[in-house]
Amino acid sequence: MYKIYDHIKPVKGYLRTMLLDVNNHKYVFIPNNILNKNNIYINDNNYITYKKATGISLDPDYIVLIDPKDEVNFIKSNYKWNNPFDITNAIIDIGDKKIDDNIYRDKLNNISVMHIQLRFISNCDMDYLLYLVNFFNNIAIRSIQIVLNYEIKENIDNYYKLINIDKVTKIEIFNYNEDKIDRYVNPYKIIYFYKRGLDINECGKIGIEYFTLCQNHYYESLEYNTCLNRKLSINQDGYVCNCPSASITYDHISKCNIRSLINKNSFNNCWYLSKDKIFVCKDCEFRHICTDCRVFIAEKSIIYSHPTKCTYNPYIAKWKDEDGYISVCEIGEYVNGKFILNKHKINNINALNWKEEV
User: What gap in Å lies between CA 71 and CA 66, rounded to an integer?
Assistant: First the structure.
């Protein structure tokens, strides 16, 4: 029989199974019926049938031929996601008003924060921008990302001064005259230039370009929401929230006890909304490499409803730009708080798209 390596994570979808290689950051698809019930082994006959039907052999990175009596020699990993930081990602929006940096420092130093993203919503004076980034550079964090609009009046060299600040690892500059990527100094310091303008509601997009094919993300996704888990945002008015696009806010940063807030269920319950709990997503083979959005969802009254900015339909295994695609909403609907599929319609579509018998 064939055994799947421990670093290969099978993720069963409605129509097919993805074998995710978390070591080499790649994946392949196999039929749902090729694996045994434990998703660890492939029966010899099933594999032979699969190869004859598709002409495809699985890469040796994925499987190994073993004698059944050697099964006990393969130890299964008991890895579980964990992170020592209270907050892994803090997003701070900065608008027209200057922030009270001392308050931000004191509040954030009261908890452990891994990464900070500074989003300059309005045009910002370069001297103030440099001052503020240097200020946050001296807070006990690991890295800083900067998001802002390009100012024509500014010398482009001033933006490169930002990337030279110790903890700054990434800068996204919008409203530039071209799209380009500049890996400055080393591969770990990157400047992205975009022709499009900065849209603060751009988050929530789901697509192949946003997939994360690593072990840490995979294990986090098994139990947590990979967008909102350990995230904290402070909007441009100074109010704390889960996400920059969220309409629900909590205390103002000046009056907020952040440690107390993040330990409240009202704030952190969204951390535990894993993909396996989300309608449609839980039937998708990409769910453990994908991100999630609980702000832009199909039914506002149903917290488990699917994200509206996803353009993949797992029931027919098609992306929006592919032939034969139809949206999820055309093959199902929400009834009494649940997503109900029209399986007859799905079967007919798949028979046409994939030449399967209904």
Answer: 8
